[in-house]
Fold this sequence. Notes:
Number of strands: 0
Order of helices and strands: HHHH
Helix content: 40-55%
Number of helices: 4
Radius of gyration: 15 Å
Oligomer: single chain
Shape: globular
Strand content: under 5%
Largest sheet: none
Amino acid sequence: LVKLAGIQPTPNHSGQKTRSPTPMSGKGRAALRTMLFFGCLHLIRKDSAFIAYYQHLKTRPKNPLSSLQAIGVLMGKVLHILWALIRQQTHYDPASWQLVYQ
């Protein structure tokens, strides 16, 4: 699913230079990627589990992410959660996806 959406990180280098931020590949379905992006923006504003995870990604002591990088991580998280909900045939419960950060 991550590859289908085109959100997997790809190396950003030429023959001699390696650039630091690793971008999304962008080779998948553009409409799916757009829906995931705007869906994640909505989740960052409304869902407590995603708010906490987003803040953790941006402020973690080792390798903090920029805002757009954190949204990219959340896009993959949404895909994994949706796949799990489909396989388990259950409804979304934010408490079951709350992670503990140290």
